[in-house]
Amino acid sequence: MDFRIGERGEALRAEVRAFLREHLTEELAERCHRTGVAHDDGFVRAMHEAGLLALGWPEEWGGRPCDPLDRCVVEEELSKAEAPTYGVSTTHMVARAILHAGTDRQRAEIIPRALRGEVLIVLGFTEPECGSDLAAARTRAVRDGDEWVVNGSKMFTTNAHIGDHVFLLARTDTSSKHGGLTVFLVPLDQPGIEVQAVRTISGERTNITYYRDARVHDDWRIGEVNGGWRVLGEALQEEHSTGFGASMLGLLEAAEGWARTARGGAGRPRIDDPDVRERLGRCAAETEVSLLLQRRAAAMAQRGDTPVAEGPMAKLFSSEALTRAAEDMFDLLGPDAVRSRFTPGAPEEGRVEHALRFSLGTTIYGGTSEIQRGIIARRGLGLPR
Ligand SMILES: Cc1cc2nc3c(=O)[nH]c(=O)nc-3n(C[C@H](O)[C@H](O)[C@H](O)COP(=O)(O)OP(=O)(O)OC[C@H]3O[C@@H](n4cnc5c(N)ncnc54)[C@H](O)[C@@H]3O)c2cc1C
Q1: Is 239 near ligand 1, meaning CB less than 6 Å away?
Q2: Tell me: the pLDDT tens digits for 239-280?
Q3: What is the radius of gyration, based on Cα positions, of the chain?
Q4: What's the rounded mean pLDDT across residues 20-47?
Q5: Ligand 1 center to residue 136 CA distance, Å?
Q6: What DSSP character marks residue 132?
Q7: Which residue's alpha carbon is nearest to atom 41 within ligand 1?
Q8: CATH class of 240-380
Q9: Most buried pick, 26, 95, 281, 324, via CB within 10 A?
């Protein structure tokens, strides 16, 4: 297998870097960092205008042809730069679910707007009592004429405070666990929905959302009644195929930048210290493995194969490697490492300190490490449950 990025991919990389230089301004980066919100309408519209938002989507929907392997390059550049694209990823995940399972009207109304950056869709799967075991969802949707009435609560509904719709997993039948779930695209701007902020250790703002007689028209049911588990399956497959190799690359660059400028005993640059080099070398090797695992999953998608175990391997390895590397780099920088961004004297603008806090969530969302190991064991190795 050849995971090298070809000329077309490298040209795309240059295009994304030029875009980021122009649009990911200091002011925007600081705002995202202070608010903990990884979405910005203006930035997403600019991505659309630059032709970077609809990469890999079918041309009939306004997409720009792009192989999965080349798309890896774009994602690597955006995440290394910490560009505010979390809202894009959830919106596009739902748009793809609608492409596969939605009605013609749902496709026509949502997909073009999603690809122009005109709609923000958030994910309402996790509940206070269930996350990994999503099929245990208890939020109820009960039919009332042409509408459904929703009652319950969802945990970690990231971006719900600025979103247009929530892709909501609801229980429509209590007699079957997996066979009693339905998915709806619920408008967030209505009196029956309350959004409360939840702050995470990384500074990210997420939310808990409450549904009290919230309403959604049956036209916005995605897929069959009680067929939600199937609709969700494909969306989750994509979530389980994310990776954090690019975040490791950002961390490595920060640590290397520090090692080249910081001075140790006798005024020698810290990078001359064998211990520093060894740690940077270890981080570089794990970064490379993470990126290669992600590219392998993309290469499989390019061939038309589904990376059922390979996607989870990339997510599992890269999130745990990021956590290991962030701890190691934090230790390497010593007391200065605790200074966070915008604090005078913070080394490398506090990127190592932030990486440590950020890394801790990466082994949880998008499927925890234990869940990924379970998928690899069952689907990859064929082991019993
Ligand atoms: C920052 C952040 C943002 C998020 N954004 C969203 C969002 O936008 N929308 C959304 O719907 N959700 C979101 N989530 C939720 C996330 O997907 C869940 O937190 C995750 O799926 C874990 O679920 P849980 O928190 O209920 O933990 P639980 O499922 O209760 O797990 C608790 C522990 O038990 C382990 N465990 C559970 N089941 C098994 C098993 N079968 N085998 C072995 N071990 C197991 C887990 O690995 C974990 O260590 C977000 C979470 C975070 C932290």
Answers
A1: no
A2: 666 899 999 999 999 999 999 999 988 899 999 999 999 999
A3: 22
A4: 97
A5: 13
A6: S
A7: 371
A8: mainly alpha
A9: 95
Which pLDDT tens digit goes with each residue over 41-92? 999 999 999 999 999 999 999 999 999 889 999 999 999 999 999 999 999 9
Partners of residue 373 on adjacent β-strands: none
Q: What is the CATH number of domain 122-227?
A: 2.40.110.10
- Using DSSP's 3-state secondary structure scheme, residue 225 falls into coil
DSSP structure class, residue 355 = H
Euclidean distance between CA atoms 331 and 291, whole angstroms: 24
Considering the chain, what is the average pLDDT of its residues? 95
| Whole-number Å distance between alpha carbons of 115 and 92 | 8
Q: Where in the chain is the domain with CATH 1.20.140.10?
A: 240-380
State which amino acid sits at residue 89.
S
pLDDT > 70? residue 157: yes
Sequence ranges of the chain with CATH classification 2.40.110.10: 122-227
Q: Are 193 and 210 in contact (CB under 8 A)?
A: yes
Segment 92-106 shows an average pLDDT of: 96
In CATH terms, the fold of domain 7-84 is Butyryl-Coa Dehydrogenase, subunit A; domain 1 (1.10.540)
Active site residues: 239
Residue 103 Cβ < 6 Å to ligand 1: no
Distances (CA, A) of 203 to 25, 37, 88, 354, 357: 20, 9, 19, 9, 8
Residue of 245, 270, 274, 273 lying closest to 258 (CA atoms): 270
Find tokens 């999603």 and name the residue: 114
DSSP-derived 3-state class of residue 50:
coil
Contacts of 304 (CB under 8 A, 6+ apart): none
